[in-house]
Write a structure and sequence with these properties.
The protein has about 80 residues and is an all-alpha fold. It has a domain at about 15-65. About 65% of the residues lie in helices and about 0% in strands. It contains 3 helices and no strands. The radius of gyration is 28 Å and the shape is flat. The model has no long low-confidence stretch (mean pLDDT about 80).
Length: about 80
Amino acid sequence: MSQKKTASFGKPTFEQQIIEERKLKALEKIANSLDALALWFEEVDKEEWGDRLQFYLAEWHRTVPPKEEVEVTDEKTDKA
């Protein structure tokens, strides 16, 4: 990043303008990629993917270790 700062809020330096243009181009590329992904998700045949997603979720569920169940006791009933 640039270490130079402008003396006022007026006209930015040439280097700052170039950095801002690069930021803008990068954001436009990101937006185009997200738009393409959104269109792809809309076009995917969701009925066909249902069984496949269910299979992969089940496989992933098997890799996750089970949580230990902790018993919660009510202090009011223990004292009585």
